[in-house]
Predict the 3D structure of the following.
Amino acid sequence: MICPKCGAKLVCCEKTFRCENNHTYDRARQGYVNLMLGGNHGDSKEMVAARHRFLNADYYHLLKERLEEIVTRLQVRVLLDLGCGEGYYTSGMSRHVAECYGVDLSKDALKIASRMDKHTQYVVASIFRLPFEDESVDGITNIFAPAPVDECARVLKNRGIYIRVAPHRRHLYGLKKKLYDQVYENEMELIKDERFELIERVKVEDVIHIDDHDDIEALFMMTPYYWKSSKEAAHKVAEMESLDTEIAFDIQIYRKKDC
Ligand SMILES: C[S@@+](CC[C@H](N)C(=O)[O-])C[C@H]1O[C@@H](n2cnc3c(N)ncnc32)[C@H](O)[C@@H]1O
Ligand SMILES: [Zn+2]
């Protein structure tokens, strides 16, 4: 990791990260370190709590297991999870790599993540300005979060792996059918950047049955529909006692080209 003030290497001594110019950053009680110079935002406490509840009930376990299989198979040694949230996927993958870092703007999310997963160093920072050296990591994951392609190209070693996860066409189709009269499939986009080549694409899909009302509310809150939907849609969610829905994820695996 590097110092966000001067760019010099950070060395960790007990509970403090320090650079050669004596800029210091303390590890919080839970274990994360805040390398954000300005104010930080990221997901709110409520969104974080909803996502933590839903993911920890393991409705998305197939995606978690598949990501663990992929980082193991591709022999990722140093992994960076960008926009890691509460570390549901990070904590699983960290067991299969030598060094693991999770980066997110949300302190509330990283408090939860670092309490549960001691093998990963969680860092409060913007994924668009990463406190990591050029060409220092060999794997990046970026799951349901904005795609900072320039920073990925900078911090990845040559031939490093960039794994991006986005919703597949029919992800949460059953939920959308209950909310809206007219339902559209999700659009899917690939990263088109000459520094990366797509080497593999994996679809993970399942049908889930949720019969806990609070889990349905939590799922709704962690989707974009929560912000975009009318009061009428929120009312429909409030009345739902069970839900069957398709889930589908698009895992895109890129390799940084030799330069
Ligand atoms: C939809 S959540 C996904 C969290 C996690 N990857 C997961 O799938 O459970 C998106 C995450 O990206 C974070 N985020 C959004 N913009 C960010 C930025 N510019 N820098 C760092 N984190 C960011 C949010 O705080 C949030 O935790
Ligand atoms: Zn410094």
